[in-house]
Amino acid sequence: MPDTAVLPVVDHTLPSPGAYRLGGCVLEFTPFPLIHRRIRPDGGELVIGDESTLTLPDVLTATITVERRRRLRINGWLDLRGRRHTLRLAARVVHVDDDGVVFAAAGTAVAPGRRRVRVEAAMEFTR
Question: Against a cut of 0.85, is the pTM above it?
């Protein structure tokens, strides 16, 4: 499939229940306008079930809820520079099939007594 091909859209929001490993991820945060930093986690897991969870060791722990078709809400914790931030992301499913899911997310992270940090992420999980 060429790089410019359009991925097929399917009817369901998340893949079937089970555990998926991180295939690729880029987390970008912006503490101040025009200053961007990237984090590339070494591993992670997405578990789809009664309570869906997302874990990137030493970086992010969150639960995922389905708001409406192809829209997700990611709430949890982001550990950044030795501080724990409350994380709230809105995500949309970009591609899903029987073996994995790709989604894009954006939102904010806030540590107590600190200013908001803008967070954007692109994540791919496969069986």
Answer: no
